[in-house]
Amino acid sequence: MSLPILKLTAPIVLVPGLRWFGPLFSARRPSRDAFPGVRRVLEAAGNQVLTARLSATASVATRAGELKMFLQSNVGSQPVHLIGHSMGGLDARYMISRLGMDRQIRSLTTVATPHRGTTFADWFICRFARYISPLFRALGIPDDGFFDLTTEACQRFNAEVPDAPSVRYASVAGVCEKPWLGMEWAFPSHIVRKAEGPNDGVVSVASATWGEQNDVWIGDHLNLVNWPNRLMKKAGEWHDRASDYGLLLNRLAHIES
Questions:
Q1: Which domains are delineated in the chain?
Q2: Which of 23, 97, 141, 253 is most deeply packed, by most CB within 10 A?
Q3: Taking the model in full, what pTM does it have?
Q4: CA distances from 147 to 14, 121, 123, 133, 190 (A)
Q5: Rounded to whole angstroms, how far apart are CA atoms 149 and 59?
Q6: What confidence tier does 141 reach under pLDDT thresholds 50, 70, 90?
Q7: Do residues 219 and 200 touch, judged by C-beta distance below 8 A?
Q8: In sequence order, what are the beta bridge partners of 83?
């Protein structure tokens, strides 16, 4: 029996990642809901939950500024807990450290965030940036977000964006291997595994680990935000991930006590 989800006094803000990964690697769900079903389950326990709206492929700095504006418009100056998926965790870290939001943010839990970059971004940028960047710019679409996820860019980021002492940091990493690793993740997972070890299809456990506590969940990069794993569903092994977010909230309740 799962534990009941606790109600937090501060709102929870879900921060989506680089939205390119959804349509690129999976057509299983529409990309409107970055955390399918999570908000509904957390709100059912009485929590106030918001999902930030950020540019899909802009830079971390740009998205961090948008996140700050979103908070100012939707919660004012009240304290909040942030849960950031993938690049959304980097956006939140930048906003906290560089945009003067450390006093308002009570905690940041990152989910599958490439804190140290991902070698798949290195591989992709090296081979395809020369073709994709001109196309994106011709269409008026920023491509900076892709470059911000390389291992070199994240090494600079970590040197320039220190954690705030007043904020509690935690993380969730993912591991997905056969038989649950879908075809869409097989190649990037191979690239990352050779250089970094176990991963969720694009971000390694080593890169995703951050803060004072780290959980490791079974699933690919999108399964961790409750996009179902079709292979696990077929085998009857999939469980709704929203309950895992409830456990994250129960841990955050101790921060408020």
A1: 12-256 (3.40.50.1820)
A2: 97
A3: 0.92
A4: 23, 7, 11, 10, 20
A5: 9
A6: low
A7: yes
A8: 14, 109
